[in-house]
Write a structure and sequence with these properties.
Blueprint lengths: L2 H31 L1 H5 L7 H6 L2 H25 L2 H28 L3 H15 L5 H14 L14 H5 L19 H7 L4 H11 L1 H33 L1
Membrane topology: Multi-pass membrane protein
Family: Belongs to the tetraspanin (TM4SF) family.
Protein name: Tetraspanin
């Protein structure tokens, strides 16, 4: 392939990275400036939860890195700078290694996910649900949106703070018709409302192909950018000699 086409490919890849970073940063700024309207399309986030999960800052930071990376690639291609090209290649390589390491860790610990989450979620439901407003609002929003009850099922609330403070009642989402019948043990058991962990797993499984497609697309762009940048670096190195 002619070298000019290689330069064009690299410029396009860098420009794509630059534009993606700008869009992500713009979304982060939107969340930061007008988080209420943005979060309306992303239930079950609550106002209290947003204070602790800074989606806007994360998006701005990630977008800024991608924007600078794209700008670095564009400058390297335009100025035919070996230094900028190798820097671009190194940063992309580090990102790929980090992504691979994260994927391996996620794969290794995937079988322990339920155990780890249960160890975190169950004590919170037992001791803090109904007492801690942030945790209570988050769980209420999650259970209402996903139509689930607790982490495993309604038994997560048995003998909990909420259960004792409400005279042996479970949260309304744990029963099919809480407005008609009190949500006590036998009604919660008869309703058979599933736990939120199962609902989350099903939601992830329904969208796993989209997640795989996005991951594959991002990886392909990164590998292509590394390949072209290294090719151009070798070309400039040979040209210099």
């Amino acid at each position: 392939m002619p070298i000019c086409q290689k330069w064009l490919q690299f410029l396009l890849l860098s420009l794509l990275c630059f534009l993606a970073g700008m869009c992500l940063a713009a979304a982060g700024i939107w969340v930061t400036v007008d988080g209420d309207s943005f979060m309306k399309v992303l239930p079950p986030f609550t106002d209290d939860f947003q204070r602790y999960v800074s989606v806007g800052i994360f998006s701005i930071t990630t977008g800024a890195v991608m924007t600078l990376l794209g700008l670095l690639g564009c400058c390297g291609a335009q100025k035919e700078s070996k230094c900028l090209l190798i820097m671009f290649f190194s940063i992309i390589l580090i990102i790929c290694i980090a992504e691979t390491a994260a994927a391996i860790v996620a794969l290794v610990y995937s079988s322990y996910t339920e155990i780890i989450l249960r160890a975190w979620a169950t004590p919170g439901l037992k001791e803090q649900y109904g007492k801690d407003k942030i945790l209570t609002d988050l769980w209420n929003s999650t259970m209402t949106t996903l139509q689930c009850c607790g982490f495993s099922n309604y038994t997560d609330f048995s003998e909990s703070y909420y259960y004792k403070q409400n005279g042996g009642l479970y949260p309304p989402t744990c029963c099919a018709d809480p407005e008609l019948f009190p949500c006590v043990d036998h009604n919660a058991d008869f309703s058979g409302v599933v736990g939120c962990f199962k609902q989350i797993v099903q939601l992830i499984q329904r969208n796993v192909n989209i997640i795989r497609g996005i991951a594959a697309g991002v990886t392909a762009i990164e590998v292509a950018a590394m390949g072209v940048s290294m090719y151009l670096y070798c070309y400039l190195d040979k040209k210099a000699t």
